[in-house]
Design a protein that fits this description.
This protein is mainly alpha-helical and about 80 residues long. The chain is about 75% helix and about 0% strand. Helix 2 packs antiparallel against helix 3, helix 2 runs parallel beside helix 4 and helix 3 crosses helix 4. It starts with a helix and ends with a helix.
């Protein structure tokens, strides 16, 4: 499994979708459980997680080696 910072640099560097899929697969369950504590609906939590991931994908150019993609996902999902 790729480390979070390496995934961040790959996302920002315009690499293919492998880095995004790796991040999605490694954080989905944890992010879903986090969101579920706030919304109390698995379906709504799933939608929020997907929206956060899509937002990260389209804004991946702002992610750099110092900023954690995982933290970006959690912050986006919480907001």
């Amino acid at each position: 499994m790729l480390k979070d910072k390496k995934i961040c640099s790959m996302l920002g560097g315009g690499y293919d979708d492998k880095s995004f899929v790796a991040l999605y697969n490694s954080t989905y369950s944890q992010l879903h459980a986090f969101v579920l504590r706030y919304v109390k609906s698995s379906e709504v939590a799933e939608e929020i997680v997907h929206d956060a991931c899509v937002r990260l994908y389209f804004h991946r150019s702002v992610i750099d080696g110092e900023r954690s993609a995982k933290a970006y996902l959690f912050k986006t999902a919480k907001n």
